[in-house]
Each structure stands twice: as C-alpha cells, then as structure tokens.
C-alpha cells in the first residue's frame, strides 16, 4: 500500500490459523495494546491489510473465485479440482483461504472496535477510526455472505481456545448487521469525503454510500429477493451522485493507466485496494499480481512480465457494437472500451528485443484481458511477477449504473436512469474526449461504370479528420469503408464521390450516437437487459460479473450460453475454454463451506449440493 503504511508485524492479533482455530496464535495481547492513538491507527491498518492478501484481492480472487464467467476465463486446460472452472470441492484451497482471511479481517476489526475507547485521544480521530473499522468489518461480512450464504456472525473478539463452535447465521440477519454497521460508519465518517482524503485507498463517505447501494442490490436479488431494497439502493446511489464530488474520467483508458502509474483520481475511482512496490529491495512491500496475471503476454522486462493468465471470452468481445462496413479483420468498434478490455496484440515469449515487438492477435476466443497493462507502469524493474497496480472496488461509473438499475426497478426507465447509462456510454464511445465521430457511410446508390477506385471526400458537419475509401466490384461501389472516423462532428457531413470513370454513386454519412436505442428503453424489462449488458461493457474484467449474474439469477444460463458459443464458433484448439459453462450447476451460486472448517466447527453445515 502507498498512503496506508503497513506495520505488519504487530498486527496479526488473530494469528495465522483458521477462524475459530483451537490453537492460540496471538502474540500481542489486547491488554498490552490499543493504549495510544498511534496503536489504534496501526490496528486499523491491520484491518485494511487483509484486502491486499493474495487470497483476497492480491491475486486469487481474480484468478480463481470470480474469473469463470461469460466475460473471462483462465488460460489452459484446467485440471480437476479447479475453482475457476467449477470443478472444485469443499476441500479446495482457495475456498478455504478466502473464508479464512476474511475472518482474519473481521477478528482484527472486532479487537479494534472492542478497544476503541481505551486510549485518551482526540475524539474526532477516534470516531474516524471506529467508522472505518465498522465499515470494513461489515464489508468483509458482505463478501462472505454474498459468496457463502449463511455464515457465522461474530461481532466481539473471540479469545477462546476451547469454544470454537459457532453456528451459521441466517443471511438475512447477517445483512441486517452489515447495513447497521455501514449506516453507523456513514455517520462517523460524515466529514471524511473523498476529496478531503484525496486518494481512494481509504474508506470515504462516498465509499460507504456506494457500497451500501451494492449491498441493497444484492439483497434485492438472489437469494433473498427482497425487492423493497431497490429503493434503498436508489437512495444510497443518489447520495453519492448528489454529493457532486464525483465525475467520470473523460478517458476510459486513463482510469487503468492511472492504476498502473500509482495515480489517484477520486472523482472516478472511489475505493481501491492499494498495492505498492515490486518486491525488489529489502523493505516490506504490499504487492499484488494484477499486472502479471492479465494484460498482453510479455516476457521482456522492458515491457513488464505478464503471464496473461486471464483471457476474455468471444461473447464479451462480440457484445460491443461494430461498424459492419469496416474493412478491418476485426470490424471497428466505436465503443473504445472493447479494444482496451480485449487485447488484440501480445509481445511473445522473448525475454528481450524482439520481445518488444507487438504481434497482432485477431482470435476473439484467445484474447488477453487488457485492463491491467504493465507497459504503462512507471515503477522499475518490471521483471518480477509482483506489480504495484491498484485494484478498484468502486468506481463512479458503477454507481451510475447501480442508480439506473435501482431507478428502473422502482420507477421504470425514467429519463434520469436512461441519462445515467448514456453518460457512461458516451465516455465509452470517446465522446468526452473526441466529441461525436462518424458512425457509418451508407450507399443509397452504387452507381455504374467504375473501373478504378473513386475518391471519397468528407466535408462539413463541424468535424475534422474523417477518411474513407470506396470498394468497387462489377463497376459498382459496393461499400465505403471508414479508415478514420474523425472527431467533433455536430451534424452529419457531406460525402462526395468523384473519379473512377463511373457515375451515379450516392452515399450518406451518419454520426455516432452512443445513446441507448428506443427499443432498449421501451420497457422496464428491456431496460433491465440493457443495464445488465452495459455493466459487462463497462465493468468487464473488474470481477463483479459473477456476483452480478448470481443476484440476477443468470449465472448458469449465461455460462451455458457462453459454452454453446465456444463449441459452435471457436477453433478446435480453443474448445477447452467452454470448461466453466460445461461444469457449472445451480449449486455454484454459493461457494461450499470449507471442509476444514466443517471438521473443526461441529455446528457448521454444508451448503446445498455440497
């Protein structure tokens, strides 16, 4: 981490064994700690620290727990037992350690909260520490309950080395405690705004409100299906929007370049897991693997070593709009998010030049996830597998889409909900940077007598830079391919065709309209589908998709659809990428309760199907 400096050695109050382990592991007694403001602050850092663990957001959450969706998959044939292809069992390592480290965070928060009043200190600072600790404890419980269902609810420190059996608490009750803690945190952190902090690695008021909106959306969906919570989600998403603290970064790509270069943009990136360093040198560094497990394949340290283990699906690539007249092998998409999220090049396996030469990749069933690209990192050397790139937990675009979803469920496809989605789309289509571009050039008459390719001139419309080329066959112009879509058009330009020895060809240009179509906003049902798709287009590869699909009741269906697409359309050597869809069943809407914990805690019970 960068802004939150780690004092790791002194913070493992709960040790390094499983939750409710019957062997004591504390090596700092609470009686001898929490005596000063500095010690409370250090303890809070320890609560945050869990998020950066390799089994949480450092690596394995992305590579195992959430990767197998209709957006992303793991490269290579996955052996039996792998979680990312739904072949796992309750003894799976990632199932066990994900549970374990979330409870570490909860126990650290419990200890801190229990001792919050111990030192004499500034009360404003005490309230801030308490608010962050309560929110983080609630967040860890939210991650647990949304992945495992009913879980043991422990809200006080558990120093016992004998009584390790705690029954699972009904999910609805767990959610009530989550909401309780987060609402208290909202009060305690009322002055801790995102702009006052200036960085996204710490919980701000907007963090609390935005995550509360997410919590309520999950409660409204599977498995609780409490649709009254859509209204609560709407309230809390609007609190973030109405604060006027946040705005979309004009450039979609820049959001992720900022993560690579350790730059903060709290207007867009509200909350992120902080990583720091690359594990070179002697100082302890809080590193992750995000840049190494995604981005274009590279072995050259000048680029940044990446295994490109996480790939994007063909369905994800094909979800983006394209210009059907495009002459490119992969038709041009005016939605600039496609070519950022789905990498169409790699650097190969050389450890030096020519490892710096890009190799084009046009196989949409074998594209690397492009969101986290080491070539943009400024920290050197870049030969290690550890990277400093931060991981977003809440972006403003997500808040806008959550608001639109909740608004639609409460009031239908209102103008405010449609505008929120369209604002996200306009940024994705480059309008906030380039203005409106050309969309298509359509032929109304192909003419006759053309023996050579005629000239195509584009004038007017207030824009500049547009270039197009005619394609002829049998004396007629069959299509006009745009090679440069220009920028800053305010109206459709005029297309003039001259030369080529022919006559009569007429073409009409249109300019880009990133807004949803009337059909997509015609009803609550159609707008719901549009929002679900937009969350993929905008947030794809940020590992929210699996939990979204679960709350919408679409996990099995969408993964089966993805498998069908692969079997039908992918090359023979890519058929294995259907593994997740081939294996997923209804039981996979929840992770299994870890086998180890079932053997230790006799009051635990397995999840259905496990």
Notes on the protein architecture:
A hairpin with a 2-residue loop joins strand 11 (464-473) and strand 12 (476-487). The protein has 21 helices and 14 strands. Among the domains are: 12-191 and 572-610, Serine Threonine Protein Phosphatase 5, Tetratricopeptide repeat; 437-511, no CATH class. The protein has 610 residues and is an alpha+beta fold. It is 38% helix and 13% strand. The strands form six sheets. Strands 1-3-7-4 form a four-stranded antiparallel sheet. The longest helix is centred in the N-terminal third of the chain and has 26 residues, at 123-148. The model is unreliable at 5-27 (pLDDT under 50).
The share of residues in helices is: 25-40%
Give the strand order, joined by hyphens, for the main sheet: 1-3-7-4
Strand residue content: 5-15%
Shape: globular
Q: Please give the count of helices.
A: 21
> What is the name of the CATH topology of the domain at 12-191 and 572-610?
Serine Threonine Protein Phosphatase 5, Tetratricopeptide repeat
Instruction: Average the pLDDT over all residues and give the rounded result.
Output: 93
Rg value: 26 Å
The CATH C-level class name of the domain at 12-191 and 572-610: Mainly Alpha
| Class per helix and strand makeup | alpha+beta
Largest sheet: 4 strands, antiparallel
State the end-to-end CA separation: 37 Å
The beta-strand count equals 14
Low-confidence stretches: 5-27
By oligomeric state, this entry counts as single chain
What is the CATH-assigned architecture of the domain at 12-191 and 572-610? Alpha Horseshoe
Summarize this structure briefly.
The chain is of the alpha+beta class and about 600 residues long. The chain has helices spanning about 35-50, 55-60, 60-65, 95-115, 125-150, 170-190, 195, 205-220, 230-240, 250-260, 290-295, 315-320, 335-340, 395-410, 415-430, 430-435, 525-540, 545-550, 555-570, 580-585, 595-600; strands at about 70-75, 270-275, 310, 340-345, 345, 360, 365-370, 390-395, 440-450, 455-460, 465-475, 475-485, 495-500, 505-510.
């Amino acid at each position: 981490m960068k802004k939150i400096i780690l004092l790791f050695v002194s913070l493992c109050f709960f040790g390094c064994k499983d939750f409710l382990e019957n062997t004591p592991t504390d090596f700092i007694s609470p009686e001898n700690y929490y005596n000063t403001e500095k010690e409370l602050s250090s303890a809070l850092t320890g609560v945050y620290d869990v998020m950066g663990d390799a089994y949480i957001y450092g690596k394995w959450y992305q590579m195992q727990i959430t990767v197998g969706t209709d957006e992303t998959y793991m490269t290579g044939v996955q052996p039996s037992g792998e979680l990312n292809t739904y072949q796992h069992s309750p003894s799976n390592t990632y199932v066990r350690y994900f549970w374990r480290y979330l409870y570490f965070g909860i126990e650290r928060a419990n200890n801190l909260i229990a001792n919050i009043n111990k030192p004499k200190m500034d009360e404003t600072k005490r309230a801030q520490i308490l608010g962050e600790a309560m929110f983080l404890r609630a967040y860890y419980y939210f991650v647990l309950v949304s992945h495992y269902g009913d879980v043991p609810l422990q809200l006080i420190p558990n120093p016992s080395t004998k009584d390790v059996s705690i029954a699972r608490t009904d999910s609805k009750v767990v959610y009530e405690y989550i909401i309780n803690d987060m609402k208290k945190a909202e009060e305690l952190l009322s002055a801790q705004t995102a702009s006052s902090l200036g960085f996204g690695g710490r919980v701000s008021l907007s963090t609390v409100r935005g995550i509360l909106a997410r919590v309520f959306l999950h409660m409204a969906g599977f498995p609780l299906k409490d649709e009254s919570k859509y209204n609560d989600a709407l309230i809390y998403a609007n609190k973030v929007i109405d604060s006027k603290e946040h705005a979309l970064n004009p450039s979609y790509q820049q959001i992720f370049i900022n993560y690579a270069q350790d730059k903060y943009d709290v207007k867009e990136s509200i909350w992120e897991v902080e990583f720091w360093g690359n594990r070179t040198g002697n100082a302890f560094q809080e590193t992750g693997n995000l840049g190494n497990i995604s981005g274009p394949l590279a072995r050259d340290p000048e680029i940044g070593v990446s295994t490109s283990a996480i790939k994007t699906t063909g369905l994800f690539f094909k979800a983006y709009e394209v210009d059907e007249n495009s002459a490119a092998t992969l038709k041009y998409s005016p939605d600039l998010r496609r070519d950022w999220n789905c990498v169409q090049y790699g650097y190969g396996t050389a450890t030096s030049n020519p490892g710096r030469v890009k190799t084009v990749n046009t196989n949409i069933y074998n594209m690397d996830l492009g969101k986290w690209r080491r070539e943009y990192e400024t920290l050197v050397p870049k030969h290690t597998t550890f990277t400093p790139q931060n991981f977003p937990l809440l972006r403003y675009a997500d808040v806008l889409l959550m608001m639109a979803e909740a608004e639609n469920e409460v009031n239908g496809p209102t103008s405010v909900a449609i505008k929120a989605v369209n604002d996200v789309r306009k940024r994705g289509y480059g309008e906030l940077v380039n203005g409106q571009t050309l969309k298509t050039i359509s032929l109304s008459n192909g003419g006759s007598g053309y023996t050579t390719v005629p000239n195509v001139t584009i004038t007017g419309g207030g824009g500049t830079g547009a270039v197009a080329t005619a394609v002829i066959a049998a004396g007629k112009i069959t299509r006009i391919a745009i090679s440069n879509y220009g920028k800053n058009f305010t109206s459709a330009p005029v297309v003039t065709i001259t030369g080529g020895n022919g006559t009569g060809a007429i073409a009409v240009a249109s300019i880009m309209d990133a807004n949803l179509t009337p059909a997509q906003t015609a009803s609550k049902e159609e707008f719901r589908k549009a929002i679900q798709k937009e969350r993929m287009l905008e947030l794809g590869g940020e590992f929210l998709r699996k939990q979204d699909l679960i709350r919408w009741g679409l996990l099995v269906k969408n993964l089966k659809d993805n498998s069908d697409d692969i079997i039908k359309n992918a090359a023979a050597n890519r058929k294995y990428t259907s593994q997740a869809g081939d294996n997923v069943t209804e039981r996979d809407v929840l992770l299994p309760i870890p086998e180890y914990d079932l053997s230790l805690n006799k009051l635990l019970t397995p999840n259905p199907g496990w």
